[in-house]
Amino acid sequence: MLHRTCIVLISLLSSICTLGEPLMLNLTLPSPHPNPDAVVQEVQRRVNVSISRRQMLSYTTNDQSTCLTGNPIDDCWRCDPNWHLNRQRLADCSIGFGQYALGGKGGRFYVVTDSSDHDAVNPKPWHSPLRRHPNRTPLDRLLRQHAHPPLSGTHLQQLQNPRRPRR
């Protein structure tokens, strides 16, 4: 009986919509940014500037050219020899849609000093995804890159929108 009622209601609604002006249902979510194309163009502009800077590095020999990488995010902080004294400034280096994200800014640090934890499903105690407060996770020194398994459910907490409250 319930199925017939639903079918009748759907048929009735669809016939009403076709009688007059067609009802256009917008099922897309509104953009969180008023002009997303401008954000994409700004990221492309910064990347192009960095790439052209990287190409020019081979022709220059000044001291600043040794710290420029060609990556706009790394170039933001790498030329400052005392970057580790103000790690909160690293949050200001983001570009694109995450440029104004505040998640973790002003929070405590979890400095990575050990690259031996390879278990993504059962991380060591007090691993950053298990913490309940926002934090930044800068690297204390360059760690070896390892192939990691895909993200598990424990890492989804880190990937949430920083403006949305955690559950």
Automatic annotation (TrEMBL):
<dbReference type="GO" id="GO:0030570">
    <property type="term" value="F:pectate lyase activity"/>
</dbReference>
<keyword id="KW-0732">Signal</keyword>
<feature type="region of interest" description="Disordered">
    <location>
        <begin position="117"/>
        <end position="136"/>
    </location>
</feature>
<feature type="signal peptide">
    <location>
        <begin position="1"/>
        <end position="20"/>
    </location>
</feature>
<dbReference type="InterPro" id="IPR012334">
    <property type="entry name" value="Pectin_lyas_fold"/>
</dbReference>
<protein>
    <recommendedName>
        <fullName>Pectate lyase</fullName>
    </recommendedName>
</protein>
<feature type="region of interest" description="Disordered">
    <location>
        <begin position="147"/>
        <end position="167"/>
    </location>
</feature>
<dbReference type="InterPro" id="IPR011050">
    <property type="entry name" value="Pectin_lyase_fold/virulence"/>
</dbReference>
<dbReference type="InterPro" id="IPR045032">
    <property type="entry name" value="PEL"/>
</dbReference>
